[in-house]
Amino acid sequence: MALAFDEFGRPFIILREQEKKTRLRGLDAQKANIAAGKAVARILRTSLGPKGMDKMLQSPDGDVTITNDGATILEQMDVDNQIAKLMVELSRSQDYEIGDGTTGVVVMAGALLEQAEKLLERGIHPIRVAEGYEMASRIAFDHLERISQKFEFSADNIEPLVQTCMTTLSSKIVNRCKRALAEIAVKAVLAVADLERKDVNLDLIKVEGKVGGKLEDTELVYGIVVDKDMSHPQMPKRIEDAKIAILTCPFEPPKPKTKHKVDIDTVEKFQMLREQERKYFDEMVQKCKDVGATLVICQWGFDDEANHLLMHRNLPAVRWVGGVELELIAIATGGRIVPRFQELSPEKLGKAGLVREKSFGTTKDRMLYIEQCANSRAVTIFIRGGNKMMIEETKRSLHDALCVARNLIRNNSIVYGGGSAEISCSVAVETAADRHPGVEQYAIRSFADALDAVPLALAENSGLPPIDTLTAVKAQQVKESNPHCGIDCNDVGTNDMKEQNVFETLIGKQQQILLATQVVKMILKIDDVISPSDY
Question: pTM for this one?
Answer without folding.
Answer: 0.80
